[in-house]
Amino acid sequence: MSKDEKKLKINISEKTKNILEWILCIVIAIVLTLLFRYFIATPTVVKQVSMYPTLKENQRLIVTRTFRITKNMPKRGDIVTFEAPTNTYSSGTADESNPIALYLDKDKGFFEGFVYNVIEITKKSYIKRVIAEPGEHVEIKEGNVYINGKELKEDYLAPDVITESDVFKDFIVPEGYLFCMGDNRMKSTDCRSFGCIPFDKIEGKVICRFWPFSEFGSI
User: Fold this and answer.
1) Hey, which residues does 150 pair with through a beta bridge?
2) With the C-alpha atoms ordered 125, 61, 128, 68, is the resulting torsion angle positive or negative?
3) Residue 217 has what pLDDT?
4) What is the DSSP letter of 181?
5) Secondary structure class of 205 (helix, strand, coil)
6) Over the stretch 7-19, which tens digit does the pLDDT of each residue have?
7) Measured between alpha carbons, how far is 76 from 71 in angstroms, rounded to an integer?
8) Which domain holds residue 33?
9) What 8-state DSSP symbol labels residue 41?
10) Same domain for 5 and 113
């Protein structure tokens, strides 16, 4: 083999090595990004009016997901995102002794499940406020919410807002579930119609708003 051929072979080897190093760096960056989004925090956009006036359409938020590591679930008053249930109930089909949300989609394979749950493509989510925790007795009557017989003070609601429900209105939140509602009660599809949300469907807790900059701050 001539010197020129050896030099060419060395150059090709170095280029191949550099390309492989760049590919490895890109793969590592993607993996770290996905891990950060799934376990630490991720941005999200408000797409509906169900949390007005607290949140408005097109506002950008940061959602923390550290509870997936700590197992410390959100508490009453926290604003959370969760996977949208597949079904809603009517007053004739709801069982208030078992007020749980239904997720009836078929089982997903590894790749489909990864795309859906980690990359979150095609996944539909809701953003609502936690109103009641496991074991608490919820009553919705006379335009108000009562927790364990005591009226819940909701200073975050607009002055003219009343709370009504034709489906779930007198029940106990099951263990391992949360009862959530939107602040804009008349324009919110929430746990009043589809039941309480299981812990494993909670995606994150809103911690701050970063857009528009004029309303930047914690929530």
Assistant:
1) 147
2) positive
3) 93
4) E
5) strand
6) 545 565 777 888 8
7) 16
8) 1-39
9) E
10) no
**Together in a domain, 7 and 55:** no
CATH number of the domain at 75, please: 2.10.109.10
Percentage helix, strand, coil, to 5, in the chain?
30, 25, 45
What pTM was estimated for this model as a whole? 0.89
173 & 105 share domain:
yes
| DSSP letters spanning 50-88 | TTTTTS-TT-EEEEE-THHHH-----TT-EEEEEPPS--
Q: What is the four-CA torsion angle of 67, 71, 76, 81, rounded to 10 degrees?
A: 40
Are 65 and 139 contacting, i.e. CB atoms less than 8 angstroms apart?
Answer: no
Domain count, the chain: 2
Residue ranges in the chain whose pLDDT is less than 70: 1-12
Beta-bridge partner residues of 163: none
